[in-house]
Design brief:
single chain, alpha/beta, Protein-Tyrosine Phosphatase, Chain A, 9-stranded parallel beta sheet, 20 helices, MptE-like, coiled coil, 6-hydroxymethylpterin diphosphokinase MptE-like domain-containing protein
Amino acid sequence: MYDISYEYAKNQQKILKINDIYIESKINPNKEAERIIEKELSDYYTHIVFGYGVGYLSEKMLQKIINEDVNGGQLLIIDPLLDEIRDTVTGCKQYIYSMNDMNVLESVIDFYLHQTHNRVKVICTKNYDTLFASEYTKFLNILKKRMQNFSNSLYTVTSTSIQWQKNIIHNIMNLPTDGTLYDLEFETHIPVVVISGGPSLAKQLILLKKYEKCVLTIVSGSTINSVLQANIVPDFVVSVDGRLSHYEQHYEKLKNISSSLIYSMETHFKIRKSFNKKGFAFFTHESQALEEYAKKSLRLSMMGLNMGTSCANFAFTIASLMTKGPIAFIGQDLAFTNNATHANTNKDFHELTEEEIVKNQYFYVEGYNDEEVLTSLTMNAMKESFEKQIRMVENPGRVFNCTEGGARIQGMKQTSFLNFLSSNVEEKYEFQKERLLASTQEGKSTYVPFENLSKEIIIYEEITSLIEGKLENLNKDNELLQNENLILEDLLQNNEELSIFIKTINELFLQVPIWKVKQTVDWQLHESYLSKKGDTDLEVQIHIYHKNIAMLEVYLKISKEFSEYIKEILEEGSEKNV
């Protein structure tokens, strides 16, 4: 409990007192707030104020952001005492959050990180870090984790976007013979075992081999190698990795594996060639643009999944689609069990050194057997994704963590793998499984990729022609920016016309699978052409003009590149069909 009272500063402004500790200046809280704002308020930053107090700091900062005294600034207020002071909050009501629901808080933080591209300043109201020490530490840890996740996601998108788009084009060629994830929504109660490559996997493989005919098996990504070494051919393998290096390390030597690959359209296209059964495709992000593209261009209903940070998270979602029966996880350590990184049959296996632990800032979490186990930010993010998923799945009581090691996944029942199998497996499931898997191999799509990709070439060529024409005209009119008496109205009109033209180009881009590259390009251009505080209206418009020109030049480059790439793929396909 907190003793909350209000007093008055020397300048007669109300100030907050909590447990006999003053939150604002006892002399002039207004001046104190102005001093902090002068020091901390920055362009294109999210300003997180920990502690509302009476609101002098937050309210003044909000006004400056609304009045555009700062470019692209955002405000977020977090107060663990919000329930007690809510009635005193005035203009900042929609910007303030408590710490009662950490899932909501994480989502809010993610939203703001996206808005300002991970640029954050934390401003702790005076004495709040003393009064709410544990809450403040918890908040800082959450912020650090969410910023790390954002950085990882951003790096993945920016470093692999072109390869992802090329993978999508290649994987489109598989769709006439493959199915989609909708084909795997079974009305069955056959148990499903989701297999990951954690250090605890090895001890479960003998049991899995014994019962494999009576359960559906789903392997997460590169764990396929460990499972094959145990003479187990899984029913399904899930892959969402688009990197060539991942293919070369884990799949290149695999030939004619009799499993069905469940793959995102962004998965590296060569991985599909390692499996000889019918595959099933999906998108890794829920997006109206993706769904519209699939429906209009591919004439297919393709499921979009946006669940978690790892292949195993996707495997969990897919398992819950496949069966209404029980689901078991094995090898899902999400920790360095016995200081090992993976199962000893995995190509990435090694034991951690003390130097690695310190350098990578690994930390301890609650373990499967109530002990403390070492984990990383990445694995802990995966664990938290599972904890969110378990709350969303239909009948969560049917999901069991049978890893018998690693980290405890909150909300997921724990039992031994032997107990899970002996309690849930029935002999009839062997016949049911055979019939079910046979049915998945039937049927072919009517989709014709050559026809669709040929249409996309025409769209790219139209984009290329339009941009080349526009840039040629702009080069002729280049004296606009050379004019010393440049008139703001002329530049405004020019930028408005360019904006309308770019909108037309973007509408054309919606008809082709180029969204990942566009997302990366647009973000990089946004970051490269941020206006500065103090810029005149004319300087801002010159900035926008240069950004628009750069955007068109990059759009032209990627349009030409993907047009040529599709032509190469179509030529390869034609040669195979000769």
